[in-house]
Every structure is written in structure tokens, then in C-alpha cells.
Amino acid sequence: MKEISLVDLENRFQKKVDSEIRIEPNDWMPEEYRRTLIRQISQHAHSEVVGMLPEGNWITRAPNLRRKAVLLAKVQDEAGHGLYLYSAVETLGADREQTIDDLHSGKAKYSSIFNYPTPTWADMGAIGWLVDGAAIMNQVPLCRCSYGPYARAMVRVCKEESFHQRQGFEIMTVLAQGTPEQKAMAQDALDRFWWPALMMFGPNDDESKHSKQSMKWKIKRFSNDDLRQQFVDVTVPQAKLIGLTIPDPDLKWNEKTGHYEFGEINWDEFWQVVEGNGPCNFDRIKARKDAKEKGMWVRKAASAHAAKRAARKTA
Amino acid sequence: MNSLFEYLLRIGDDSLILGQRLSELCGHGPILEEDIATTNISLDLIGQATNLLTYAAEVENLGRDADNLAFMRIDREYKNVVLVEQPNGDFGDTMMRQFLFDAFRKLFFERLQQSKDFQLAAIAEKSLKETRYHLKHSSEWVIRLGDGTEESHSRVQHSLNTLWRYRAELFFMDEVDNELINKGIAVDLKTFRNEYDSFVSTILNEATLNPPAQNWEFGSGRKGKHSEHLGHLLAEMQYMQRTYPNMEW
Predict the structure, then answer these.
(1) How far is B3 from chain A (nearest CA, A)?
(2) What is the ipTM of this complex?
(3) Which of A32, B99, B205, B240 could lock B138 by a disulfide, CB 3.0 to 4.6 Å apart?
(4) How far is A101 from chain B (nearest CA, A)?
(5) Using the 8-state DSSP alphabet, how is residue A23 labeled?
(6) What is the pLDDT of residue B195?
(7) Which residues, in sequence order, are CB contacts of A289 under 8 Å at separation 6+?
């Protein structure tokens, strides 16, 4: 049998990617492509699961029955997204438990935005509106990602994210039209979440170390800065519509480019939070570790019981 | 006293308080699949509470709505059984509490579907579909934990020992029930007590668990007398409505 060289395999792979043919789990793929996807998808999964915590913080205190039900449904969706994504990671040969251990050890990252606290109810609005809004900008192009299982998971995830974004904006709208106290609560949440939301798109293009290769492999379709700009352009008019002020004195509309210009992002803060020094990094990871440790006896019991059942069946 | 209003509060508050308890666990489950399940059960219960309290407010006809009833009563005015306000404890406590409750609820809703009050019958029919899943889930976990490892067996046996005394209150009846039973609206709980005991004992048996010998039964939640735990639960649940009264959210 004729040996196919690595270069040939890589060329064929790239040709498939270039002609928009999806890569499936059993197809040959470069090791680096596999590693990149494992890193990206598992970090995406971790973000969904850690992301349950800042919102879970308000389920027990939601102000009325409808809001409580909606928030429960939303956080449940996030757990579901985590589950699809961990399954997508497994199609690449990675082990779900290992990726979770990497999260707990600090080796694997997750979206930094979840390291900011949610002290008020308005934060549920700000997270839905801004954080899920930014997530949609990032994830809609992922529906066309070259890796099939990830792309298909994203189609469903995006549908649900779009509901999350709308419920967040609705919370903000109600607050902004409410009493002065409520309006102040909404503005305060926007003030705290605006900049971290812009940071969600990652470093500027010239600082982003994985971007170029990911674009070539069609894992990524748009650059960080392009997505960030798109987010600003969409979100600024929404804030105006409900009478809230974007906390950026440099923000202005550029007639010529048809885009908003905005101020400098505090990248020192971004990297500090990525490195584990954000306001809630410690609490978030501790909550996840505690859940794993406290649940150990439950998982052991489930395995032991399954083994007993199997043994009884064959006996 | 408006008996139908009182009856609706009893059923609705069971759903509300247990839904609230389960929602505390969101994001902290022993495995991601269980986080989804627990959140989903909590969501079902909050949905049931919404339907029942909306109807209660309508029956009461004093200008209150479901949110008013859910968030603005004092502890004595909540009519849930003491079982559902018990803290989540460990996963064994949570599942045992759920199992003892679900087993009751399934049999109860099966009968409440026949109520001559069409609104109540419709709520029961919808809630029964959900409750069947809840019971399947909690029964399976009781069996897994009971017949799992030595540790899980001893933990969930302890859960059973502490929660067992609260189950009898599920069958509490007084003049509220009697009046509505006569009208064909309420369920006579005596009619399925044996079936409940026998179902519970079958599952416990499969789980290799033994009910404690002590049969002292108490609980007076239906009369508004609660354990110390309810006040804390309400303080958290009512925080927004109490801090910012009369606002739209």
C-alpha cells in the first residue's frame, strides 16, 4: 500500500477546510488542530458551567415568580450547553473528567467575565444583555466552524443564547423604565459589566496568539477586533433606546466609517483576571471543586450500583 | 374561611417551598447531569406554584396576585408541609426528601385530576405529568444510594431516619378538606395512604433501607406552624419584594 505523507494529509485536510467540507471525528486531522479544538471547546464548556454561578446567585432571590422561572430555565440551558460541549470534546478523544480537572487546577481557562460579582438583581439583566449578547457575536460564526460536532452544537446553543440575550435586555428595559432606584441599579450594572463584556472578545488582533492559525483552519471566521466592533455597534443604540449611558467618555459615532469609536480597554485588568486575580476567580473555582468533592460519594454509589445490577443480570 | 383558597395554598406552597429549596442547588450538583435534573424539577415546581397561587388569588378575590401570595406573606401564612422546608443537606437528604414527597404527589395528583373544580383538575393533570418524572428520578436515586456503597447506604439511611417522621403530615386533613371532599373538589387522602406506604416500602426494600422504628409523627405546617428553617428560606426568597416594595420587575 502506498504510504501517504504527512504533508499530503495536511494538504488534503486544508483543501477540505477550504471547500467548506466539515471535518468529522473519524477524519484525519493535524494534531495541532485537534489540540486547538480540545482547548477551545473545553474552555467553552467550562465557561458555560462556571457561568451558572454568578446567575445561580440570584435564583433564590429573584423578585417574582416569572423571573425566577426564567432564570432557572436560563441557567439550566447553560448546564445543557456545558454538557453538549463536553460531549463535543469527547469526540476528539479527550476525557471529560481530565478537562474538568484542568479547570480546577487552573490550567484550563474560562470566560473571564464570570470572575466579576453579581451584587444586584440588575446584574441578571446586564449579563443576559451584554454577556450573552457578546457570546452570540462570538458563537454565531462558530455555527460554520470547520469541525462538525462543534458547529452543530453551536446551532442549538445560539438559539438558546438569543432567548437569554432578549430576557436580559427585557430585565434592563423594565428597570430603566422603573423607579429612580431601579434605574440607578440598571445603570450601575451597565457601568460594571460594559468593559468586561468588551474584553470577552479577547486581546486585540495583533496580540492574539492563536487567531491566525484558527482563521486558516476555519475554526474562527472573524477577528477579535471585528467582533468587538460589531458588538459595540449593535449595543450602543440599544442602551440609548432604554435611556442608559455607556460608561465610555470617548465613545462617538464615526459618520465616515459607519462605526462607533470607543475608548481604550484596560488590558492590564484583563490579564490580571485571566491570571486568576479577578474579584471572584477563587470563589468560582472553589464552588466547582466543592461540587466535585462533595459529589464524589454520590458518583461512587452510582457506579457501584450499576456494577451490582450488571452482575445480577449475568448471574 | 374560604376553604378552596386555603386548599390551594396548601398545594401551591408545597410546590413553591420545595422549588425554592431545590433552586439553591443550581450549579452545585454532584454531576452536571444532576444539575440539569434538579434545576428542571425546581422549574416544574415553581411553574406549579405559579398556577396554583394565581388561581388562589383569583378565588380569594381581594386584589392580591400570585407574586403577592408567594412573596409577601408572613411565615404563619404559608401552608406547606414541614417536610419540604427541610434544608437540602447532602445529596442523600435532598433525594430522600424528594422521594417521600414525589410518591405522595403522584398519587395525589392522579386523584385530583378527577376534581369537580375544572381549573384544579387541569392543574393536577399538567402537574402529574411532571411529577411522574420527578418520582422516577428520586426513586432511582434512593435505590442507587441505598444499594450503592457502604458510605452511600449509611448516609441515605441517616437521611431516611431524620426525614421519616415528616411524611405523615402529607396526609393531614381537617375541616378544609372535609368541606371540599363533600363538594367533590378535594381528594380524600385516606383513600391512598396504604398505597403510599406500600409503594414507599417497595422502593426502600429495593434500596436495602429500613424505616426507623420510631413512629412519632409530627408536623403542623398545614396550620402555619413551621420549623426554624422556613424563616431563613423566606428571608432570602422575599428579599427583593420586601426591600423594594410595590415595584415592577
Answers:
(1) 24
(2) 0.97
(3) B99
(4) 13
(5) B
(6) 98
(7) A104
Closest by CA position to B39, among listed B20, B21, B16, B23: B23
Residue of chain A whose Cα is closest to the Cα of B140: A302
Contact (CB<8Å) B43/A73: yes
pTM for the full model? 0.96
Residue A209 clears pLDDT 80, i.e. is over it: no
CA nearest neighbour of A40 among A188, A175, A172, A214 = A214
Number of domains making up chain B: 1
pLDDT confidence of residue A315: 78
B214 found inside a domain? no
Does a structural domain hold residue B249?
no
State the residue range of the domain holding B25. Answer: 3-208+219-243
What CATH number is given to the structural domain containing B84? 1.20.1260.10
Cα of A297 to nearest chain B Cα, Å: 6
Per-residue CA distances from A10 to A1, A5, A13, A29, A218 (Å): 19, 9, 5, 7, 14
Asked whether residue B80 is domain-assigned, the answer is yes
A304: which chain B residues are within 8 Å (Cβ-Cβ)?
A: 148-149, 152
* Residue carrying the nine cell digits 450488571: A310
- Tell me, yes or no, if A259 comes closer than 8 A to chain B by beta carbon: no
CB–CB contact A65 B49 (8 Å): yes
Q: Find chain B residues with C-beta within 8 A of A67's C-beta.
A: 249
* Predicted pLDDT of residue A163: 94
DSSP assignments along chain B, one per residue: --HHHHHHHHHHHHHHHHHHHHHTTTT--SSHHHHHHHHHHHHHHHHHHHHHHHHHHHHH-SS--HHHHHHS--GGG----HHHHS---SHHHHHHHHHHHHHHHHHHHHHHTT-SSHHHHHHHHHHHHHHHHHHHHHHHHHHHHHTS-HHHHHHHHHHHHHHGGGGGGGG---HHHHHHHHTT-S--GGGGHHHHHHHHHHHHHHTT----S------BGGGTB--THHHHHHHHHTHHHHHSTT---
At B15, the amino acid letter reads S
- Best mutation target among A47, A64, A114 (most B Cβ atoms within 10 Å) is A64
Q: pLDDT band at A193, cuts 50/70/90?
A: very high
